[in-house]
Structure formats: structure tokens, C-alpha cells
Prior knowledge:
Layout: H1 4-24, E1 34-37, H2 46-52, H3 66-77, E2 81-87, H4 94-105, E3 108-116, E4 127-135, H5 175-186, E5 194-196, E6 218-221, E7 229-230, H6 234-241, H7 253-260, H8 264-272
Parallel strand pairs: 1-2, 5-6
Antiparallel strand pairs: 2-4, 3-4, 6-7
Amino acid sequence: RLGYGWLRLACSLVDLLLDFVYTLLGESTPQVDIICGGIPCLGASKSGRAKLGLEFAEDHDDAGALYLDYLNWVRATNPAIVLIENVSEYLNTAAMSAIRNVLNYQGYDVYETVLDGWDFGSLERRKRMVVVAITQGLGDSFSFDNLSVNKIRESCINEILDPVPLDDESWKPYQYLAAKEVRDKAAGKGFGRQLLTGSEDGCGVLGRGYKKGRSTEPFIIHPTNQELSRLFTKAEHARIKGIPQVMLEGVSETTGHEIAGRLQELSATRLLN
């Protein structure tokens, strides 16, 4: 195991990297047409706030103040268009209020809404805040009402499943999740498991940490043994979201799920198209 000396070294390297980034944010910073990014939702999501006991999204030790860095990038690169994605709860945070006011002050028209991937051809029911800020006078005709569906959604989850053998080691009892569900219900937390047969026309969110096997994310139930279930494969994850599977080739299952769990770039492409 790595000792604390390695941890201090890693933290020092991160600090050096941040100093380098901030040095770039000067007069010589290249100007760009579009900035697309998602501010971390760790302190804003329902699960994150419940787990950490946060009263405000901005209270998160690591992610709470990162919106300031995002605004610094906007100011330094002076993009014509700014795209921001986050959980829908972020719309009502103090951070979003600051973002909204700063962008207006810098000469942007700011458009906000909540979109669900399921409405645009994805099997995943993933509601996200989407903010599009356009330089005043450039996008007078922009409207979220003009968004169009560019993918036909499959009729059910079974259509995207891999032929996983019934005796494959991916089928597991996940007894710790079953026990956690009982505890959560007894505590009135309202968090339940998503155990799917494949006949459903959609599923809940698959996050970037999906490979960890977390309690509220979807699992497929074994066809002949109801005590067993499995996670979606990275390829299935890509199909659920409508992501090109080539993006996940050559990486592990864990890394593949991490890639598939981040949608900002694809969301931007669909908005701009």
C-alpha cells in the first residue's frame, strides 16, 4: 500500500498542475468558440447531499467551489457559446445563481431547462439541467423547443443485452445490497434497488461509478434464479445511452463505465445539431 508520503506527493503534484492552469488563464489564453463542461454534481445530487449530510451544494469540500474555476475559464477564453450540464437540482443552488448573474453581466443570453435522455432516444431516464449561454445578438433564434430526436429508442432493454451465459461469473447474489435496501426502507430513506427483467422500456441513471455495484442503480435479474443479478456490461451501457461503442473499446469495464457516465460532449453535439 502507498504510504502518506505518496499521498502528500500526489497532493503537491495536483497543486503544481493547478498553478500551471491558473498561469494559463492570462492575456495569452487562446480564445475559443464554445466551452462545454459539467460542474461536478457531488454536492448537488440528492444522493450526494443525503450521504454527506450537506445543507447546501456549495458545502462540498472538493466540488462546492469549482463553479468559480469554470467561470474563470469562461472569462479567460471568451467563448461565443457556453454549455453547462448538471443534475436538475443544481438549478436552485446559490452557485447556479452566481453563474447566471455573471454570464448575464458578461454579455450572454442564458437559456435553462431540464431535459430527459429518454425523450431523445435513450433507454436511460436521466434528467439533467442544461444551460446554454449565447453571446447577445448571436443566437436570437435559439430555443429548446427546436430540439429534435435523432435516435429511435429501442422498445425494451432486452434489445440491447449481450448474450451473457447463465453460468457466467457476473451473476451474483449481491447480498450486501439486499441488506442495505432493508435498512434504508426501515430508516425511511426511500432508496430502493432497480432489479430489471429486460422487458422494461427504460431504466434509471447509470453513473460513472456504476461498476462499483451501488444500491440505487439498475441490475438485470437472472432469468432462472431470482436470487442472482448482474450489472450491465460497458457495451450495454453504451447502447442504453446511445453512445458509439467504439468510444469504449480497449479499456476495462470500470473505465468504460466511467467514460459512458459522462455525457457532456455528446449532449453538446446534439444541442448544436
